[in-house]
Write a structure and sequence with these properties.
The chain has 452 residues and is an alpha/beta fold. It contains 15 helices and 20 strands. Strand 8, helix 10 and strand 9 form a beta-alpha-beta unit.
């Protein structure tokens, strides 16, 4: 039986969060069918699992935006389906019959800390950022089945980006709340984050020292002003760059003042300290900038002992059998347009390409790549009214936009009714296998127990 909408093309999108949902919106607005394969029960990705739960106003807004896009009649949602585990990547690309495939599976794997043997101490005084924040977001749920993480005072955090600020915030919130409870004072960590831990302590007439809490320390390999807490503007002159660096310093100092952690710049970890079968700290080496180059300072190692170390040095895509990789990253034939070095018709959107977890960046990248694919590969040249190929993509000039539009090769990947129906048959078989009927009823079914 033919699908009633009978679109000209059917695309597969692996991942249903910000960039994947945004790409689905671009396609469905053009009348293109979109199959969204999601590894989890819910399609919210790092909005749910990586954005700390104190963002209690932003998270529901992002959930709503994703729901609006994925509940469109031309979207076919498939939950509980992980590529490489439940469906082989090559099978999906070559045999399911899609017009093209988009990777919107993000970056869920932590970049290794780079110290030989340190992974042997995971859960023994050592964690990576992603599972640690996942624990913070979900551990209070009644049906939580994930890894439970410990929290300790005086922890080491290795990082420097926005995600590492989330980690030090969690550590300070949890250790301060624990110390307050020991004094018979109950404070909710979410309320404390909104107020600021320093303000909470002032309200109780306390300081970190009088409470007896040892702060965690964030160690960064470059200078404070190099921290990627704010981006340089495209084509920025020296004065503009200095202003951005001042903004970075202000953001970090405000965070330190509010959350009461410590910061040490120009150091990098070079070895582990192990005691009693646990990671007991790290050996650091001092660094310095010589011109634009970061260099090590000879004979400058020093040891820092701590009961807990968390690495927050970035996230990379999960390896998937069939997806070409070079080192830690996927191999792109044309990174600017997200084209994977795999046959034809396979593209990436969002963090899997950009390496940036920023929500706005992922949203704009999803729009940009989906628009490009619709024109360059699917041959649907007409854009929705009032939009352009690169509208809203930071850093893309009008001249570059014109150049891309001029160079787009017109190709067609339209499906016959029979081919479209055959692809949908595979989709519906997988939906049936996981118990999925429709988006609204599924989302009602998989609401966490605490939120029902």
């Amino acid at each position: 039986m033919s699908d009633s909408s009978n679109p000209p093309c059917l695309v597969a999108i692996i991942g249903g969060a910000v960039s994947g949902a945004e790409a689905a919106k671009v396609f469905t607005e053009r009348g293109i069918g979109a199959v969204v394969l999601e590894q989890n029960d819910r399609p919210y990705g790092k909005i749910e699992d990586g954005l700390p739960r104190w963002h209690d106003k932003q998270r529901p807004q992002e959930y709503k935006r994703i729901d609006e896009r994925l509940s469109h009649p031309l979207v076919h949602f498939i939950p509980r389906t992980r590529i490489g585990r439940d469906v082989a990547f090559e099978d999906l690309v070559k045999n399911w019959g899609f017009s093209c495939v988009l990777l919107a599976n993000g970056a869920w794997r932590d970049r290794p800390l780079g110290i030989e043997g340190v992974e042997a101490y995971l859960g023994k005084g050592f964690y990576y950022q992603n599972p640690f924040i996942y624990w913070f977001n979900h551990s209070s749920e009644k049906d939580f089945k994930g890894t439970r993480c410990e929290v300790a005072e005086g922890a080491i955090v290795v990082g420097g980006g926005l995600a590492s600020l989330d980690v030090v915030k969690v550590l300070m919130l949890e250790t301060i709340a624990t110390a307050l409870r020991a004094r018979g004072i109950q404070e909710d960590v979410i309320h404390m984050e909104h107020e600021g831990p320093s303000a909470t302590l002032r309200r109780h007439g306390l300081t970190l020292e009088s409470l007896g809490v040892k702060p965690c320390t964030l160690y960064y390999r470059r200078r404070l002003q190099d921290m990627p807490l704010a981006s340089y503007k495209d084509g920025a002159d020296e004065a503009s760059r200095r202003k951005t660096e001042e903004t970075r310093a202000k953001l970090l100092n405000n965070a330190k003042e509010s959350s009461l952690f410590r910061f040490q710049e120009c150091v990098r970890p070079v070895d582990k300290i192990v005691e009693g079968g646990r990671l007991a700290g790290l050996r650091f080496l001092r660094t310095e900038m010589k011109g634009d180059k970061l260099v090590d300072v000879p004979d400058s190692t020093f040891d820092v002992r701590a009961p807990l170390t968390i690495s927050s040095v970035g996230s990379i895509p999960e390896p998937v059998a069939g997806i070409p990789m070079k080192g830690e990253l996927y191999v792109w034939r044309d990174r600017e347009h997200g084209e994977l070095d795999f046959g034809v018709g396979v593209y990436g959107v969002g963090n899997v390409v950009t390496g940036k977890g920023n929500i706005a960046v992922s949203r704009k990248h999803g729009q940009f790549i989906a628009d490009h694919v619709a024109q360059a590969y699917l041959g649907l040249a007409k854009l929705p009214a009032g939009t352009s190929l690169l509208e809203g993509v930071a850093g893309e000039s009008a001249e570059k936009a014109r150049k891309i539009a001029d160079e787009i090769p017109r190709r067609s990947a339209r499906l016959s009714s029979a081919a479209y129906d055959a692809a949908l048959a595979k989709v519906r078989a997988r939906q049936k296998a996981v118990g999925y009927v429709d988006y609204a009823s599924w989302m009602q079914k998989v609401v966490p127990a605490d939120l029902r």
